Amino acid sequence: MSEREERFGIGEVAARAGLEPDTLRYFERQGILPAPRRDTAGRRQYVAADVDLIRMLVHLRETGMPLADIARFTGADTEVTDPSRLRLELLTAHRQRVEDRREALDRALEVITRKIADYTDQVTDSPDVLERPDTTIAYSVQGTGPLLFLVGAPAGRAGFAALADELAGQFTVVTHDPRGIGASRMTRGMAAPTPEVLAEDLAALVDTFTGAPATFVGTSGGAVTLLQLAKRHPDLVGSAVLHEPPLITLLDDAALADRAASAFAVATTDPQRAVQEFFDLSGAAHHTGPDQAPPTHIALPELPPEELDKNRYFLGRMAGPSVFYEPDIQVLRRARLTVCAGSLSHHQMARRAADALAVLLRLPLIEMPGNHVGASAVPVEFARALLPLLGR
Q1: 269/308 Cα distance (integer angstroms)
Q2: Which of 43, 195, 253, 265 has the fewest Cβ atoms surrounding its Cβ within 10 A?
Q3: Who contacts 158 (Cβ-Cβ below 8 Å, separation ≥6)?
Q4: At CB < 8 A and 24+ separation, what contacts does 137-140 make?
Q5: In this structure, are residues 86 and 72 in contact, taking their beta carbons and an 8 Å threshold?
């Protein structure tokens, strides 16, 4: 008897699928699963194809496919003439539901991660502080080994917490909250968080650790900060990995630039609208492969007051100078840079910009796991992909 013809009892099949036998019986009674063959004693007899179908049923149920659709899939709707096409249609529609759910979970994860950092600051020792002429910069250090600075804007210590944990076994990892973010609270008279100002803050932070060139990883606006650091303080940059610097200036897309400027212009008075507009134009919360484009619009829920205040600052003061920053390509060609983009960021603003930057710098574009927020959303996979780029 071949493997495909081998017969299995209900207990063995249930164990293989991670279910209870009674659950399989329930699925049969509800019409969610076709009844299997029975032996002469009336006992259920399953073949390998049945086991495969039941395992698929489990995946569909766990990812939220409606039971009516599962029943159509597993029974392949006896009234249709092409059951394979029906199953393709059902799976395609369900994949979109799963992707939408994953994007919503990623957005929620970002908020949760920031709140963890907020409460961590309240219940543990305060972070170290770097005094600047017009403000203070909070930073944290963990791990052992060569110095590695993780740089974001607006991402700070919270956004890099999981990634820093993954890298701390091989590096002394330094993270900091850019001015006006997290524990680096905005102060009266503080200079605007332009790439030029943020790079000077970073240079001062590096100087507190070493006078020698250091290693950096920058994501999003943090990658733009590193471009300015490499221009203004090339002696400090031993090497830098740049993940999706969102430089609209490199895209030759006037309509996109106008949309971004419009979002930034209303951020202080209507941050909900600004967040929605920037979310739609950037596409950065979505997962898009090579043959997929981000949706043009998905309505966001109303943000809580705390998130609105954060985006008044981020979109009203920080994001504009970063996305409209003009890198000095001739100077940067002399720096040791690696340009990266998310494998699930295709056709999004920041990946397009990263691709354009790589072309100008005559460098390959390295794909990393996840989308624009891969460093925080998939830190284990992101760290694993980073290590070869960092010489480990």
Answers
A1: 10
A2: 43
A3: 113, 114, 116, 117, 118, 182
A4: 137/176, 137/177, 137/178, 137/179, 137/184, 137/201, 137/204, 137/205, 138/176, 138/177, 138/182, 138/183, 138/184, 139/174, 139/175, 139/176, 139/177, 139/205, 140/164, 140/174, 140/175, 140/176
A5: yes
Number of H helices and E strands in the chain, helices first, is: 16, 10
Check if the beta carbon of residue 47 is closer than 8 Å to that of residue 7. yes
Q: Using one digit for the tens of pLDDT, what is the confidence trace for 207-245?
A: 999 878 999 999 999 999 999 999 999 999 999 999 999
The residue whose two tokens read 């990266």 is 340
Tokens of 283: 């596409």
Short-list 134, 143, 152, 193, CA closest to 320 = 193
pLDDT in tens, 349-370: 999 999 999 999 999 999 999 9
Which are the contacts of 210, defined by CB distance < 8 A and separation ≥ 6? 147
Phi/psi for 148 (5° steps) reads: -140, 125
pTM of this prediction?
Answer: 0.76
What is the distance between the alpha carbons of residues 133 and 319, in angstroms, rounded to a whole number? 23
